[in-house]
Design a protein that fits this description.
The protein is mainly alpha-helical. The chain has one domain: Four Helix Bundle (Hemerythrin (Met), subunit A). It contains seven helices and no strands. The N and C termini lie far apart (52 Å).
Length: 205
């Protein structure tokens, strides 16, 4: 099977999985359940697409879908601040930083060898099983009827970001930190091997 057919098969399975998740959520809990299925499909499907795709741009958009799916799950839980932080920090900052880092890094032609992929899958599955077992052992499950009603605080969060005594200082510091990290990544990636050799000679090694 060539690469084109593999991509068509992969995206067809992803689309059918998304529709199945939304249908199951709609049947189980109505519109909120359908939204949960959509956001869960965005989160998991975006992660799979980010690993699957060879294009840096498509992988970046897939990662953005994962971040937006997590933000949507936070909204369903009534945590507006975490959803906004997910969009502002991860989509607006971390994603750009990762994108530049990947684009400025020389490709590794052996990164998709079967032993490395199999080892990565085993590590991910083992980590998920361990975390899931720990969460299931300590979490206090509650019925949906016993949960408090969801209250939005978007207006308060937006006003707090604009106040000097609110979140604006922390937000600006995070932006400066990401900018410094991005500039440093570009500087390191653009250095030539001869520059590194000269620095080594000057250091006396």
């Amino acid at each position: 099977m060539d690469l084109r057919k593999q991509q068509i098969t992969f995206y067809t399975v992803m689309l059918l999985g998304t529709l199945a998740a939304m249908g199951w959520g709609l049947k189980t809990a109505g519109a909120p359940g359908a939204m949960f299925g959509l956001f869960a499909a965005f989160t998991l499907g975006g992660g799979l697409m980010c690993i699957w795709e060879r294009s840096v741009v498509r992988s970046a958009f897939s990662l953005m879908a994962t971040f937006c799916g997590v933000a949507g799950l936070f909204l369903l839980l009534g945590h507006d601040f975490l959803a906004m932080a997910q969009i502002l920090i991860y989509v607006g900052g971390i994603l750009v930083l990762i994108l530049f880092g990947v684009m400025l890094t020389p490709p590794d032609l052996n990164e998709r060898q079967l032993p490395r992929v199999g080892l990565g899958v085993l590590l991910v599955v083992g980590t998920l099983a361990f975390v899931g077992a720990k969460v299931a052992a300590v979490v206090n499950w509650a019925q949906a009827e016993a949960l408090p009603p969801v209250e939005t605080r978007a207006d308060e969060i937006g006003a707090a970001f604009l106040r000097a005594d609110g979140y604006v200082i922390a937000f600006e510091l995070a932006a400066v930190l990401l900018t410094v990290a991005l500039v440093a990544a570009v500087y390191i990636a653009r250095r030539k091997p001869s520059d590194m050799i000269d620095l080594t000679d000057e250091g006396g090694y």
